[in-house]
Backbone:
């Protein structure tokens, strides 16, 4: 029987960082990944022209029926995004859940926006009285952010904004014409328009080549010019000789010994449906927020009748997510008829409008905390706006060309706050095709978030006016889950009665069981999650190494108090 | 044109070349641009060559297919561009073939296209069919469907079909090399550095 030092469930940002850190410290790691390894040459088609794809990028009718949307398209192999592991939603809950279970998970396709969180986020409760502060201050985590930024490469500038601590950056990408026009309008509106924190290599970084700006990042990068776990983390772990990666291994539950401590993991082999057990001295769960909760809730035993490490009753609770919606779309008449310009570089998120609300005082607005905007537009690969132009013939064709450089839109990224209504549990009746009880999601937008959404539409209208743009309309909120920024379910805190994990991601109840993904986060803030997942996972992983060195996770060690 | 996208190995080689050439400013076209670096002898100058091989429709009858070809070319015709350079249209780009393929593979679209074509032929009476109308009359009929100001009561099915065929014409045209060149799509190329605004003397970008 093989026994490892640590089993890590998941190979994305959180799992990948844990795997690398633990392997480099000399620990023997067994990594479980629910899907197969991806082959960028075969599975990513980001350099294909639409006419090189059978359905020109519009997908086959069969695929259109099952596509989750977004990145689940003809540009990647059909099994890259998960379609086989079923889940439930409570009545009234709509949940779109793009899950990538290929090795590296969503880091293969992430949006690359990588802003640090700060004390305005960690101590938000002290400012406005809602919910609780994080058990970690910015001073605690800042060194880890710096190390992560140095390792993955983030392009941005020093901006001195109260909501956004600055980090260590590669040169920012250049502003395009549309950025200067929007920036001038934003200045009139009194809101910031700045280079985003983009985890995209504007310079070569070690063995990683610089970005070539083809503009199709979210279909996967086949040269690894932005951070992803398979290009940056897993090779380092593999080089140590301490990693065994088991693919198509869908973790079902954490196994416990007679003391209720973690002793291993039971998983289902995707292709054979066989259940396999693997044993280790410690277990790190980083399957991504909702799946991590599912595994722990399904880990029921005599000692843990409601799921392992759930004495607080908080496991699966406190689910948060970003509301994503197009606050406004239209065009910039200044650019009508101009030559085409590479405006879709890096999928058009080289700039952003970081949170500008409730900065001086916590309750200046009708809502607490804040949201951010991402601009989009420019010369897209397909002129979607053409369907809104009346007519046909030579004049129609000329108008499509004239409008081509001008489209512009803004996406609102508005966080929900902790709510008793938003949580996951286990469906009491349904099992997926692998025989595992399904996770069930309960979620609705809270009033505070909807007030942000309303505020963002007004801000967008004003911005269009100030930048001389023509506003044509706005979208409606995407279904929850769409942003891929879900947080909560294993929140960290100092009180074992109220929190699942401590400030290091170690479960209060089971000292050799850890979570290392966004399930730890108190809420989702106005920033994206990946950079923080990497920083917190690095911190957790080094804590685990210290525990091993102190003899805490040896098989005969006493339970840690 | 399958199989023209570069492999990862080729791309890494190209990036290495790009790093050496400090003045590298990006390829003009992804496909043959890369071939130019990798295999200079395979580079082709001049206009895109269109293969007009005989196409046998999979879904439409020959008469229906002929109508689709006429319609799509009325929607996005060949035009005279800047400096009187001819700009190919829907027929040159093989849009009718794309639509036939999409309708053939998606049965849910078939009734809409079949009924729409029938509606159009009926609306062309006393002429035998839409294609037998003079071009001027064909345009007049489409204008009646396309422009709100010219629309007639009772012609909803025709108006819907116009939007449907126009949508598929757009899809079929702007996903071809001809279509992407017609708007000078700037993506899917290699750039040596982050492409930025070059109009620093005119930061408002007015009247460029």
Residues:
């Amino acid at each position: 029987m093989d026994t490892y030092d640590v089993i890590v469930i998941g190979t994305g940002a959180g799992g990948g960082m844990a795997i690398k850190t633990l392997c480099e410290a000399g620990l023997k790691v067994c990594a479980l990944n629910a899907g197969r390894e991806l082959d960028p040459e075969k599975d990513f088609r980001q350099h294909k022209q639409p006419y090189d794809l059978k359905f020109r990028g519009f997908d086959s009718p069969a695929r259109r029926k099952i596509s989750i949307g977004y990145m689940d398209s003809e540009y990647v192999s059909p099994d890259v995004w998960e379609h086989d592991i079923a889940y439930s939603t409570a009545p009234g809950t709509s949940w779109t859940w793009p899950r990538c279970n290929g090795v590296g998970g969503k880091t293969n396709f992430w949006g690359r926006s990588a802003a640090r969180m700060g004390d305005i986020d960690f101590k938000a409760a002290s400012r406005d009285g809602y919910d609780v502060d994080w058990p970690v201050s910015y001073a605690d985590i800042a060194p880890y952010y710096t190390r992560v930024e140095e390792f993955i490469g983030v392009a941005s500038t020093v901006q001195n904004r109260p909501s956004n601590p600055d980090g260590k950056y590669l040169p920012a990408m250049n502003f395009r014409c549309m950025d200067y026009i929007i920036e001038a309008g934003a200045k009139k509106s009194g809101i910031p328009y700045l280079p985003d924190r983009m985890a995209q290599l504007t310079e070569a970084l070690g063995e990683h080549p610089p970005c070539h700006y083809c503009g199709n990042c979210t279909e996967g990068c086949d040269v690894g010019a932005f951070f992803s776990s398979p290009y940056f983390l897993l090779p380092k772990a593999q080089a140590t000789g301490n990693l065994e990666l088991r693919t198509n291994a869908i973790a079902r539950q954490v196994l416990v010994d007679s003391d209720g401590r973690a002793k291993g993991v039971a998983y289902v082999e995707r292709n054979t449906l066989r259940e396999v057990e693997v044993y280790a001295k410690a277990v790190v769960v980083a399957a991504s927020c909702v799946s991590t909760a599912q595994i722990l809730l399904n880990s029921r035993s005599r000692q843990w009748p409601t799921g392992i490490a759930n004495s607080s009753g908080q496991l699966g609770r406190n689910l948060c997510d970003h509301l994503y919606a197009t606050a406004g779309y239209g065009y910039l008449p200044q650019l009508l008829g101009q030559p085409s310009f590479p405006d879709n570089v890096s999928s058009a998120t080289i700039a952003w409008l970081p949170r500008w609300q409730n900065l001086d005082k916590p309750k200046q607005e009708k809502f607490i905390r804040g949201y951010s905007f991402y601009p989009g537009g420019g010369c897209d690969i397909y002129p979607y706006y053409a369907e809104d132009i009346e007519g046909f013939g030579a004049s129609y064709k000329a108008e499509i060309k004239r409008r081509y450089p001008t489209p512009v839109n803004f996406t609102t990224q508005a966080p929900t706050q902790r709510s008793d209504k938003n949580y996951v549990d286990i469906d009491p009746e349904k099992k997926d095709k692998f025989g595992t009880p399904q996770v069930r999601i309960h979620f609705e937008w809270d009033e505070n978030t909807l007030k942000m959404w309303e505020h963002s539409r007004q801000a967008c209208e004003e911005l269009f006016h100030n930048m001389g743009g023509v506003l044509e309309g706005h979208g409606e909120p995407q279904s929850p889950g769409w942003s891929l920024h879900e947080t909560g379910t294993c929140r960290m805190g100092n009180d074992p009665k109220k929190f699942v994990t401590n400030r290091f991601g170690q479960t209060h109840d089971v000292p050799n069981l850890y979570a290392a993904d966004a399930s730890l986060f108190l809420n989702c803030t106005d920033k994206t999650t990946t950079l923080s997942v990497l920083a917190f996972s690095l911190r957790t992983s080094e804590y685990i190494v210290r525990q091993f060195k102190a003899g805490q996770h040896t098989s005969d060690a006493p339970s840690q108090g | 044109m399958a199989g023209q996208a570069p492999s990862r190995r080729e791309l890494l080689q190209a990036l290495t070349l790009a790093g050496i050439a400090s003045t590298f400013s990006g390829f003009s076209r992804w496909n043959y641009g890369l071939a130019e670096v990798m295999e200079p002898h395979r580079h082709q100058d001049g206009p895109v060559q269109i293969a007009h091989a005989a196409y046998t429709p999979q879904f439409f009858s020959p008469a229906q297919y002929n109508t689709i070809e006429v319609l799509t070319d009325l929607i996005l015709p060949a035009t005279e561009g800047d400096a009187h350079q001819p700009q190919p249209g829907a027929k040159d780009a093989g849009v009718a073939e794309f639509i036939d393929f999409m309708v053939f593979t998606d049965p849910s679209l078939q009734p809409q296209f079949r009924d729409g074509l029938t509606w159009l032929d009926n609306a062309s009476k006393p002429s035998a069919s839409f294609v037998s109308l003079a071009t001027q009359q064909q345009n007049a009929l489409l204008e009646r469907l396309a422009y709100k100001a010219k629309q007639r009561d009772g012609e909803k099915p025709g108006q819907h079909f116009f939007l449907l065929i126009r949508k598929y014409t757009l899809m079929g045209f702007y996903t071809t090399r001809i279509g992407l060149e017609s708007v000078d799509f700037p993506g899917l190329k290699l750039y040596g550095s982050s492409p930025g605004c070059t109009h620093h003397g005119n930061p408002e970008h007015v009247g460029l």
